[in-house]
Amino acid sequence: MYMTVSETAAFLSMPEEQVARYVLEGRIRAVHDGEQYLVNTSQFDTHFQQLELAKQALEEWQMTPIPEDVDIKDED
Protein backbone atom coordinates (compact mmCIF):
# COMPACT_ATOMS: atom_id res chain seq x y z
CA MET A 1 0.00 0.00 0.00
CA TYR A 2 1.34 3.41 -0.92
CA MET A 3 0.89 6.53 1.18
CA THR A 4 1.87 10.14 0.77
CA VAL A 5 4.56 11.72 2.92
CA SER A 6 1.97 13.31 5.23
CA GLU A 7 0.09 10.01 5.64
CA THR A 8 3.38 8.21 6.30
CA ALA A 9 4.28 10.79 8.95
CA ALA A 10 1.00 10.15 10.72
CA PHE A 11 1.49 6.38 10.37
CA LEU A 12 4.98 6.57 11.93
CA SER A 13 4.07 9.29 14.49
CA MET A 14 6.84 11.51 13.15
CA PRO A 15 6.89 15.11 11.93
CA GLU A 16 6.17 15.45 8.22
CA GLU A 17 9.39 17.42 7.65
CA GLN A 18 11.47 14.58 9.11
CA VAL A 19 9.80 11.98 6.89
CA ALA A 20 10.35 14.20 3.84
CA ARG A 21 14.02 14.60 4.78
CA TYR A 22 14.40 10.82 5.19
CA VAL A 23 12.84 10.30 1.76
CA LEU A 24 15.25 12.77 0.16
CA GLU A 25 18.22 11.18 2.00
CA GLY A 26 17.12 7.72 0.86
CA ARG A 27 16.55 6.40 4.38
CA ILE A 28 12.90 5.81 3.45
CA ARG A 29 12.32 4.37 0.00
CA ALA A 30 9.74 6.24 -2.06
CA VAL A 31 8.55 6.66 -5.63
CA HIS A 32 8.02 10.06 -7.22
CA ASP A 33 4.92 10.15 -9.43
CA GLY A 34 5.65 13.59 -10.86
CA GLU A 35 3.75 15.49 -8.20
CA GLN A 36 4.52 13.87 -4.87
CA TYR A 37 6.49 11.10 -3.22
CA LEU A 38 4.66 7.85 -2.46
CA VAL A 39 5.96 5.55 0.24
CA ASN A 40 5.33 1.80 0.27
CA THR A 41 4.38 0.92 3.85
CA SER A 42 5.51 -2.71 3.62
CA GLN A 43 9.09 -1.53 4.18
CA PHE A 44 8.16 -0.75 7.81
CA ASP A 45 6.87 -4.25 8.65
CA THR A 46 10.27 -5.55 9.72
CA HIS A 47 10.91 -2.37 11.70
CA PHE A 48 7.72 -2.78 13.72
CA GLN A 49 8.43 -6.50 14.28
CA GLN A 50 11.89 -5.65 15.63
CA LEU A 51 10.39 -3.01 17.94
CA GLU A 52 7.98 -5.59 19.36
CA LEU A 53 10.81 -8.06 19.94
CA ALA A 54 12.87 -5.38 21.68
CA LYS A 55 9.92 -4.45 23.91
CA GLN A 56 9.40 -8.09 24.87
CA ALA A 57 13.09 -8.56 25.64
CA LEU A 58 13.09 -5.44 27.81
CA GLU A 59 10.00 -6.60 29.71
CA GLU A 60 11.59 -10.02 30.32
CA TRP A 61 14.78 -8.38 31.53
CA GLN A 62 12.84 -6.08 33.89
CA MET A 63 10.89 -9.03 35.32
CA THR A 64 14.03 -11.10 35.98
CA PRO A 65 14.84 -11.01 39.70
CA ILE A 66 18.29 -9.88 40.77
CA PRO A 67 20.20 -12.94 41.99
CA GLU A 68 21.69 -12.83 45.46
CA ASP A 69 25.44 -12.52 45.53
CA VAL A 70 27.04 -15.48 47.30
CA ASP A 71 30.13 -13.41 48.20
CA ILE A 72 28.27 -10.94 50.38
CA LYS A 73 29.12 -11.48 54.05
CA ASP A 74 27.08 -10.23 56.91
CA GLU A 75 29.31 -7.78 58.81
CA ASP A 76 27.06 -7.58 61.86
TrEMBL record:
InterPro entries, per database record: HTH_17, SinI_DNA-bd
GO molecular function list: DNA binding
Domain Helix-turn-helix: from-to ranges: 2-50
Family annotation (Pfam families): HTH_17
Membrane-crossing segments per the record: none
Protein's name in the database: Excisionase family DNA binding protein
Species of the source: Planococcus koreensis
